[in-house]
Amino acid sequence: MSERFYEVRPIAVDEWLPDGCIAHGPPIDPATDKPGSGCDSLQRYTRGSRERLIEMYRQVLAEVGCCGFVAWVQGRVVGYNNFFPRDWARAIRFYGWGGEEDTSPGTLVHNCISMKVAPAYRRKGIGSSLIRHSLRWGKEHGWRRFEVHLVTPDSPEHFAGEQKSCVTFWRKLGFEVLRQDPGGTFSMAISLARYEL
Q: Does domain 2-191 have CATH number 3.40.50.1000?
């Protein structure tokens, strides 16, 4: 699906995997940049192993069909996000999967550190587009709820820093606060049954 100057496509094993952080540097060129072993939010699972990362994505994609989207500009990765079904989020120890008390079936889990946009491409709607694609996919495939964890409070230092996805960003997309978590971050959710495509 093309949007403005960028294109958003589902994560694909044979194309590019979220294997490095673009939050502080230029976009990633899969043709020339050295592959990594996973973005920050997956390092506890991959333990630095590229093979483990590839196998994880193969399994998730075979079982679920999608686990995130990538924003492309002229063959380079300028943004991406990940989400996982709750059982997978638990199994891979995905940051902020919600805790033992949250056992809602039919839930997709995202965390704010698993969505990155290269600095030169921020504030252009790419992050919002990645999340809208994720919500649309979840709704079309029968998922009931989409949660996001590790949402930072609205404050000047958060808006000025790397972590731009504050409470207001998620509210604009239709999310509601579930709770404030230890450390001052928030967990938020949206019902996909009520989400308008």
A: no
